[in-house]
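worker-03 picked up job from queue 'complexes'. Input manifest follows; two sequence lines, order preserved.
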Amino acid sequence: MNLPLAVLAPFLGALLVAWVSRRGTNHAAWAAAGVTLATLALLAPLLPAPFAGHTVIQRLTWMPSVGLDLGFRLDGFGMLFALMILGIGLLIVLYARYYFSERDPLGRFYAEMMLFMGSMLGVVLSENVIQLLVFWELTSLSSFLLISYWPQREEARRGSRMALTVTGAGGLALLGGLLILGQIAGSYELTDILAAGDRIRAHPLYLPALVLILLGAFTKSAQFPFQFWLPNAMAAPTPVSAYLHSATMVKAGVFLLARLFPALSGTPEWLVLVGGTGLATLLVGAVIALFKHDLKGLLAYSTISHLGLIAMLFGIGTPLSALAGVFHIINHATFKASLFMAAGIIDHETGTRDMRRINGLWRTMPHTATLAMVAAAAMAGVPLFNGFLSKEMFFTEAVGVSERMDLGWLVPLAVTVAGVFAVAYSLRFIHDVFFNGEPVDLPRSPHEPPRWMKVPVEILVAICLLVGMLPALTVEPILAVAAQGVLQGPLPPHDLAIWHGFSPAFAMSLLALAGGGLLYLGRRPLFRLHTHLEGRLETRKVYDWLVAGLFGLGRWATDRVDTGSLQRMLAVFFCSALVLGAAGLWSDLSLDGGRAGLPPDGVSLLAALSLGTVAVLAAAWHRRRLTALLLVGAVGLVVSIAFVKLSAPDLALTQLSVEVVTVVLLLLALYFLPQESPPEPGIWRHARDLALAIGAGLGAAALAWGVATRPLDSIGDYFLTNSVPGGGGANAVNVILVDFRGFDTLGEITVLAIAAIGIYAMLDRLRLPAPERDWTGRAWDSDVHPVVLAAFARILLPLALLVSVFVFLRGHNLPGGGFIAGLVTAVALILQYLANGVSWTNDRLPGDLHPTIGAGLLIATLTGLGSLVLGYPFLSSAHGHVHLPLLGDLELASAMAFDLGVYLAVVGATLSILIHLGLLHRGSHNPDAHAAAGRETD
Amino acid sequence: MEVLIALAIGILTACGVYLVLRARTFPVVLGLTLLSYGVNLFLFAAGRLAVGRPPVIAAGSPGYTDPLPQALVLTAIVIGFAMTAFVIVLAIKARSELGNDHVDGSHGP
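worker-03 finished. Artifact:
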């Protein structure tokens, strides 16, 4: 299972790096390098397989019923990308250590970089396409974090938002496309999809799927017209630009094109869409790059142009063009990453990236200059450097495709023009920066950077040279397996020689070199023209306009609906619910389901009558709050009686104890609120509310009637049948809670805990003025803790605790259980607080209840994990019988431990909520107690 | 019996909705409490009504009612308490910060 582990390793590594970084920058760098190497080591044993022609597929079963498994795949193409991600990643780790200053939080950079590395590995090693998409989105997210590494800079925030918006929108389109693709192929596994190419291309939904997938790929790879986000992402630190925005993440788009090449390519649509977009991007990027004065801006547009070139190669769709595409992916990654690093060194040393100011660095930084010049030559496509080889193949393919279509001669012409501009901007990079006179008032005086900062550049430049001169010895083996991975079949005959004789491609190369030189010489009038036109033709403006429009629309719609009044919002909400509900009821033919009902008896009638009366009185007298509260409490009591009658003893017990706690809580709270509500003006508003209320009541009653009179076909029988044999308990409700649906219960006690902690946070340090007198003007009783109540409460405590233990122990077989026992305990303890006062009780009980809540959650979770360790699903229960004296035959199930967790969480949360409200009381009731309360709560 | 439960649910909902639409926080919390009684009863009734058939497995039992809605409602009651507590504390906090207990926080005391 090395593949899933290799993808997981960087994610875990991110945590490690973040943790280690507290010890210092070097620790973080070493940890990041260690994580990268460990990931490589995990992959190493699998590397021979692709070379032997095998595809390694490793699966973890997750949800087989809906076709969701975690599947990982290593073929030649995935391997190439994985090695690039890890290899260049390692160089970036080293480079970044020297790039950042002491003030920058380097630990955060490395941790985010590890996150990105893991996401990217996930993209290239996924077998399941949905899983691929998840990692795809993760690369967008981690890239967002990395671009906004210096969040105090405005352009970093804007650039990261823009990158996330564009790539995120593309990801959404991609999801749609992949879903269609999976539906056509009948599987979300890449192996099946790649094998179903003919069926996919013949399917009527081929075009929508293709367009959606291409939207995802094009936004990610900054293809025209989505290219604008990439230059804006240059606000990122240069190591990020070198890693994400030249070598890896932007390649994810072309990776996808190549990955789905056997499934989607070969149609006229593919040729026009992919080839056309690639060509447009190639031209646009190359032309704009020449005019950028920012060093990184030039490289960014050059990257766009090269991505266009790669996309076009895949768009052409022949096996040989796909091979050339893979080759150019390798070459571009090496020379562009080294160029970015060189640009970072220059920025680092001179303090600026403006090429109008950086001149003549050859004298001060000869070593860096040599390295940059070699890489730039590779970028321009000069013979003997690696870029030349793949560009030659590209020119050959362009000539080839021109023979297949009308007006085809335009294609070689256009790519030659792009080649001319590529040579010109490469020349500019070399000449403007390293020669061209003296530097113009640089912020810093430049000199060579630290030794180790240049090592990564040297390694990459060495690769450029070696591949350029000895392609057959160096790159051929890995290129061959990678191209086989793309094609999923045999390789076309190809020859990586430097010299192919005088071919049209070679003529185009010569033309580009010569034309580029001339263009650079005549650049000045062009620059003037560009200054004149700048800003008029930018797709970014369309983006800005779209975003502003969307925000405007959102604001307009919100303002129409949300006036800031809760009453109005609720009225709108209830109105809509009524309309929708009424429409639903209307369409149903018969409200009565025809199931024979239970005959009503006198007691039930009386109970229903009293419930109705009390509820209506509570609503009618709501302005007298204490009265209304007591009436609501009475309603709760009647509801619990209804539960007793209707075969729900567990619910009755729960409702009863919750009722007590709720009324105490609301009484405590009412102390700090006005005792009476002021009258609300407006007869029309009362009438509206009354109409809404009656409508809602009628609707709810009709719905309840409709449901209760329909025959029942429930999954409840499963629980009843399996309760004893499967869960080891006779009380099916409790068994559901602690066993069958234990995961839900775990979530629920977690919510309870969160509510308790949220309340603690809100009440912490809150001081409230409390009324001196009650609402009738009487002073409070001076006898705060009546002796009789205190004495009784103390006697009651052990009895109540005994009851709760009893309720807890029998809960698995008879009504009871952790929830109810917890509430009984809480009520018993709250009684002590009420009767004896907070300070008396706090002296005798642990005041801080957070450990109790935590222990409850921990026990519940550990019980669940325990069954996982034993090889059963999370939270399965094991059980056996134990005979205890007095209690009788006791079922001792592991679910009981879980129930103990529930018990502790309920006791802790309930008490914590009430005690903190009570402490608030004491702090405000008596001015002398202010200081004491402050001491205790802090 | 079904009529009675349906009527009870209807009345609880009506009173709950009326109170939730009031302008001060405390009645709104009371309204939420009433609404949650209504909702709990409704969920419970979705398991159909039965008398004398608790879902506790025992020899000689005449049959059992559906245990699943009961389990759902049991946790709903407890969570409902937590939410009531949270909202009422929020109301106290809002009053201390804003100086009044109007639901919009923008009116006189």
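worker-03 released lock.
Residues 67-98 of chain B form the longest helix (32 residues).
The mean pLDDT of chain B is 90.
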